[in-house]
Amino acid sequence: MHKLFIIIGAISGAISVILGAFGAHALQEALTATGRLDTYETAVKYQMYHSLALILLGILFAQFDHKLLTYSGYSFLAGIVIFSGSLYLLCATGVTKLGAITPIGGLFLIAAWVLMAIGIGKSI
Questions:
Q1: Quick one: CA dihedral 23, 24, 26, 29, positive or negative?
Q2: DSSP assigned state of 83
Q3: Is the dihedral of CA 69, 72, 78, 79 positive or negative?
Q4: d(Cα 42, Cα 108) in Å, to the nearest integer?
Q5: Where are the membrane-spanning stretches (predicted)?
Q6: Continuous segment of H or E residues that includes residue 33
Q7: Where are the domains of the chain?
Q8: How far is CA 79 from CA 51, 53, 62, 100, in A?
Q9: Over the range 2-12, which residues count as b (16 or more CB within 10 Å of their CB) and which as e?
């Protein structure tokens, strides 16, 4: 399982860099015109932060092997997809109702950090 989270984190990190560069160059004018540049940057930042968290989690599996760490990894993944994904879609489509599901992704991200902490605590 640890390899899977490291691989997914690395791929997600690469996608984050690609989308960040795309936003900074090809989309900057459109995002600025629609007032969505900050929203797009938030999506990219959160995707990168939590991609790194997935990599860290995979590394932590070597020291702390607990089922809660697996749940944490899946929560990070769901959080990235729902949080950042909904913000990317909001920026691309202008459909503001997509912003209503963003907090669900945030809850997954919070849960992932809490599950990581508890899983490590129970492994000690």
A1: positive
A2: I
A3: negative
A4: 16
A5: 47-64, 76-95, 101-121
A6: helix 28-33
A7: 2-123
A8: 10, 12, 23, 14
A9: beebbebbeeb
| Long-range contacts formed by 86-89: CB under 8 A, 24+ apart | 87/39, 87/40, 87/42, 87/43, 88/19, 88/40, 88/43
83: Cα within 13 Å, side-chain hemisphere:
25
Q: How many Å apart are CA 31 and CA 83, to the nearest integer?
A: 18
Tell me the residue type at 13: G
pLDDT, tens only, 96-111: 898 899 999 999 999 9
Percentages (nearest 5) of helix, strand, coil residues in the chain? 85, 0, 15
Dump pLDDT digits (tens) for 110-123.
999 999 999 999 98
